[in-house]
Design a protein that fits this description.
8-stranded mixed beta sheet; Aminopeptidase; 4-stranded antiparallel beta sheet; alpha+beta; about 240 residues; 5 helices
């Protein structure tokens, strides 16, 4: 692993909590192995393309890093219903793909979020999609859901020897009834169980943020204590 740069941004308005101030620590890294990525995940870091980041928000610790212990996880009734909703759809797991179909779906999903949740516009270009969502990495996967020939949902994952990380998910708003995001996580847990991986990382749960609170419904889960350094042992607490 080579550190190309490190950046600690200036405090800014939080994207998740309207009265909070946010600050990210970001590393630009090259030649990150799957084992090194796993070590970063276990310390609360996330990845988009070559950028690895986690919150450094002063006294605020509202962003909780959560992961699912695969062996003890049991889906709820509503989560099992989400899995049934997508049973008729095709799910394809492969390295990330960059094309107009995926970009169009992302734009449709984001435009719906702008209208419902007041998000700022994000006119992502194909080149941006390639950098953020399909940067070459041995751990990178996508799980695409199809209704016939139509792409209706796409999950981006990192898969390491002992863990899976749910990086991002977007879907066709016309299929909101199917709870595709929940089904994507459940399918990732099943993949991890089949392949002997111990954990599925969900990223950050933020209480008070509707876009992220749902992660706490995958119980039991484990929650990271604090922000351990790369030379410190991470401590994860079980929550049932």
């Amino acid at each position: 692993m080579r550190i190309l740069s490190r950046h600690l941004e200036q405090p800014r308005a939080c994207s998740y909590l309207p009265l909070a101030r946010a600050q990210l620590e970001t590393f630009l890294l090259d030649d990150v192995t799957e084992h090194e990525l796993e070590a970063l995940l276990s310390r609360g870091y996330r990845r988009f393309g070559p950028s690895y980041f986690r919150p450094r928000c002063g006294e605020c610790f509202a962003c909780d890093s959560l992961r699912i212990p695969v062996a003890s996880f049991a889906p709820s009734k509503s989560q099992r219903r989400a899995a049934r909703n997508v049973a008729a759809f095709e799910r394809v797991v492969q390295p990330p793909v960059v094309n107009g179909e995926r970009l169009a779906l992302y734009r449709k999903w984001h435009a719906a979020r702008e209208g419902v949740r007041g998000w700022d516009p994000n006119p992502m270009a194909l080149e941006d999609y390639a950098v953020h969502f399909a940067w070459p990495h041995p751990a990178a996967r996508e799980t695409a859901f199809f209704d016939g020939d139509a792409l209706i949902g796409l999950g981006l994952w990192d898969v390491t020897p002992n863990a899976s990380s749910a990086v991002f998910f977007y879907f066709d708003p016309d299929y909101a009834w199917a709870s595709l995001g929940v089904a994507n996580v459940l399918a990732g847990v099943e993949d991890a169980a089949r392949d002997g991986r111990a954990h599925v990382y969900l990223g950050y749960r933020v209480l008070g943020c509707a876009s992220l609170e749902y992660k706490g419904r995958f119980v039991p889960y484990e929650q990271l204590d604090g922000r351990p350094g790369l030379n410190e042992r991470p401590v994860w607490r079980a929550v049932t």
